[in-house]
């Protein structure tokens, strides 16, 4: 019976104790290694617990109360404060874990709280890389304009981290480009341009401890222009000197230039040198060379030009009439550098000043001098003078001034020459048009006996008609002549391959009513084969064959 009473009393006490125990919510506390961590226990009011005990993983790590023996021997890093909180100085990674706080409050009340302590680490091993990029001696990176550039950042943190790429440059400052909570982060820029030149920073932040680590890289964007350097010249005050300018703008970083092969390169985008006439010659090639980091080793960009002497061109003689005007023209378009061209007068080469007497005009490469109201005093030599840094060249022009009376003789002479040429032309045309008519006898219309010309041979065929054989080259011509009162002597020419003279009598037709005689001429053509037979046969045979040919002609021509 006593046991039952004791058991019931014990159960009543346990029930009362259980009913007086309160349990707080689960809390988390984070600390970095080396920091001080404070683990709270009773936070419901300003009450000092009578007894507080801290347990980690089943092991007591701290106690505070009237009858407590004191904290464990841990070098004084852990201590239970008067409000029951556990203070950990110089947190170590081993301090991480779950802690249980048990406190006895006044009024025989109990309180329990659980605290999770996390010891954060990192960010660690933060690294960045930029590719493709080339590192300079000072650690600065550079990429080529227009290329694809990739930025990579990696780090490790516990329990978690945040990675961010930022950019600081001329166009923006502290701009966040991309962010991630992973262990690595990539940034990609397509067709990178000079505006993307600046400092790129990767920030790794521990999400628990808020500790942040930054890694930065300065990136430069290099570029060179596609064209070659520009070579130019500028004439100095001294005409025997010239200044050559070489410029190559649009390159980064600044290129290196030089004019002569034996000179040193200079870091500049514009280089000027001065040469005098003693260092220059006709046909000499002047060259400017440029170097840049983006060019291959030994590769150079160049510009050049070839020097040329001036060469003024124009008419050396000019003539003008008094009281008129004349224009002298000089052209100079070949000199390099361009020559300074002027007009000068007289052997002393006095420079001509434009005014009411002289007008100087320039049209492209032509330099014109117009002289107004010309007089005899303007007659003489004029010089077109061209000078460039290589030499001086001159064109001499002589001007002749004539009075109006001096042109009278020339006009008369021209008239007479034209008259003679015209008369000769008319005579030649008349002769040519009458070339088929040959006059025989003493004159037109005279009643004379026809005769053969000096060349050839005539054969009389009776009356006023004659037949003549004319030998002209390889051909034989037979001609007949008829005397007519109104036409004179008319000669008709007939071609034949025969070389034989016709001596047969030509019958005469009876006279007509008008009293004129008409002659019938028959010309027989002898074939070449028969002609050969005539040459080999004797005289009697030849006469017989001629008679037969006359009786039976092959070709008959009747006039």
From TrEMBL:
Residues 525-559 are annotated as: Disordered. The chain crosses the membrane at residues 407-428. Gene3D superfamilies: Immunoglobulins. Keywords: Membrane, Signal, Transmembrane, Transmembrane helix. Residues 19-112, 132-214, 229-306, 312-400 form the Ig-like domain. Pfam families: I-set (PF07679), Ig_3 (PF13927), V-set (PF07686). Residues 545-559 have a biased composition (Acidic residues). Residues 1-24 form the signal peptide. InterPro entries: Ig-like_dom, Ig-like_dom_sf, Ig-like_fold, Ig_I-set, Ig_sub, Ig_sub2, Ig_V-set. This is Ig-like domain-containing protein. It comes from Amphiprion ocellaris. The lineage of its organism: Eukaryota, Metazoa, Chordata, Craniata, Vertebrata. The gene is VSIG10.
């Amino acid at each position: 019976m006593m046991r039952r009473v004791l058991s019931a009393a014990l159960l009543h006490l346990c029930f009362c104790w259980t009913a007086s125990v309160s349990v707080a919510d689960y809390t988390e506390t984070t600390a970095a290694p080396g920091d001080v961590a404070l683990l709270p226990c009773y936070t419901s009011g300003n009450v000092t617990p009578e007894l507080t005990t801290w347990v980690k993983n089943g092991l007591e790590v701290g106690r505070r109360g009237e009858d407590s023996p004191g904290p464990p021997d841990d070098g004084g890093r852990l201590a239970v404060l008067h409000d029951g909180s556990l203070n950990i100085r110089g947190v170590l990674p081993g301090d991480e874990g779950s802690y249980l706080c048990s406190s006895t409050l006044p009024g025989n009340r109990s309180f329990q709280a659980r605290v999770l302590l996390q010891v954060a680490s990192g960010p660690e091993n933060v690294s960045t890389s930029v590719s493709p990029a080339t590192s300079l001696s000072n650690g600065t990176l550079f990429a080529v304009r227009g290329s694809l550039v990739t930025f990579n950042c990696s780090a490790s943190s516990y329990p978690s981290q945040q990675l961010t790429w930022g950019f600081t440059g001329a166009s923006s400052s502290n701009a966040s480009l991309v962010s991630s909570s992973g262990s690595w982060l990539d940034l990609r820029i397509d067709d990178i341009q000079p505006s993307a030149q600046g400092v790129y920073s990767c920030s790794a932040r521990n999400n628990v401890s808020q500790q942040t680590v930054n890694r930065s890289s300065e990136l430069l964007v290099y570029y060179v222009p596609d064209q070659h350097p520009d070579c130019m010249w500028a004439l100095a005050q001294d005409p025997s000197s010239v200044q050559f300018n070489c410029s190559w703008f649009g390159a980064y970083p600044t290129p290196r230039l030089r004019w002569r092969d034996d000179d040193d390169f200079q870091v500049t985008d514009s280089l000027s040198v001065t040469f005098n006439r003693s260092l220059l010659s006709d046909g000499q090639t002047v060259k400017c060379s440029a170097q840049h980091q983006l060019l291959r080793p030994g590769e150079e960009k160049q510009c050049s030009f070839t020097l040329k002497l001036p060469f003024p061109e124009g008419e050396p003689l000019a003539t003008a009439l008094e009281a008129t005007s004349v224009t002298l023209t000089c052209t100079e378009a070949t000199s390099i550098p361009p020559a300074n061209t002027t007009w000068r007068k007289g052997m002393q080469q006095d420079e001509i000043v434009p005014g009411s007497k002289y007008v100087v005009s320039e049209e492209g490469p032509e330099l014109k001098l117009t002289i107004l109201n010309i007089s005899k005093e303007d007659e003489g030599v004029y010089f077109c003078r061209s000078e460039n840094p290589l030499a001086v060249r001159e064109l001499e022009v002589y001007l002749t001034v004539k009075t109006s009376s001096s042109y009278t003789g020339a006009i008369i002479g021209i008239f007479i020459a034209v008259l003679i040429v015209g008369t000769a032309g008319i005579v030649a045309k008349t002769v040519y048009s009458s070339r088929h008519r040959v006059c025989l006898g003493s004159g037109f219309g005279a009643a004379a006996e026809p005769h053969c010309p000096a060349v050839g041979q005539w054969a009389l065929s009776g009356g006023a008609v004659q037949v003549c054989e004319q030998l002209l080259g390889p051909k034989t011509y037979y001609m007949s002549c008829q005397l007519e009162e109104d036409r004179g002597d008319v000669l008709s020419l007939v071609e034949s391959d025969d070389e034989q003279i016709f001596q047969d009598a030509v019958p005469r037709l009876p006279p007509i009513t008008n009293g004129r005689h008409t002659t019938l001429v028959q010309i027989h053509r002898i074939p070449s084969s028969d002609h050969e037979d005539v040459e080999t046969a004797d005289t009697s045979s030849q006469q017989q064959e001629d008679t037969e040919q006359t009786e039976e002609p092959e070709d008959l021509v009747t006039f």
